[in-house]
Design brief:
By secondary structure, this protein is of the alpha/beta class. It has 5 helices and 5 strands, in the order βαβαβαβαβα. It binds adenosine-5'-diphosphate. Adenosine-5'-diphosphate (ADP) binds next to helix 1 and strand 4.
């Protein structure tokens, strides 16, 4: 198994945008590890365990997808599991500006690891986890924006 890719993120919560990127990336890689970075400086809305369980549930039908958590540098995590690729989704030029710095620094830290970008599907461009959190906080229904059948509460 050579082509292992890590799709890192907070997934706070997992959205249809994330799900679509993983499914599309399956045609490029042998295995995708959707990995939640456990960053103590970032306060998340949903607990880590819930976010991990949603990943496991949503991708259980895909043998090429695994869910995991990690702490520390993403490139170190990639190395520890033998992954040579990082997948990131791009919605807008703001995403690009943010990702460009991280990707170039990651390249200096770990030259063997390539970051691969997938442009979001047009229907997912406005979709962010933070909008889904706002909908939930304000008593709205997040169902159209999260994977079909997933229950967040
Ligand atoms: P992070 O905290 O690393 O930004 P996120 O969970 O917000 O984590 O996002 C993880 C990855 O998924 C990032 O590469 C982000 O750009 C991408 N992503 C988030 N939402 C979408 C979407 N609607 N369409 C495509 N990619 C997305």
């Amino acid at each position: 198994m050579n082509n292992i890719a890590v799709f890192p993120g907070s997934f706070d919560p997992l959205t249809r945008g994330h799900e679509a990127i993983v499914i599309r990336a399956l045609s490029l890689f042998d295995q995708i590890v959707v990995a939640i970075g456990d960053n103590p400086d970032k306060r998340c809305f949903f607990p880590l365990e819930k976010r991990l369980n949603w990943l496991k549930e949503v991708f259980s039908a895909y043998p090429g997808v695994k869910a995991d958590t990690y702490s520390g540098l993403t490139v170190e995590y990639c190395k520890s599991i033998g992954a040579r690729y990082i997948i990131r989704g791009l919605r807008t030029s703001a995403d690009f500006d943010f990702e460009q710095c991280i990707t170039q620094i990651n390249k200096q830290l770990q030259p063997d690891i390539e970051t691969v970008f997938l442009l979001s599907a047009s229907e997912h461009t406005p979709l962010t986890s933070s909008i889904v959190r706002d909908i939930i906080r304000n008593g709205g229904d997040p169902a159209p924006f999260i994977p079909i059948g997933l229950r967040l509460q």
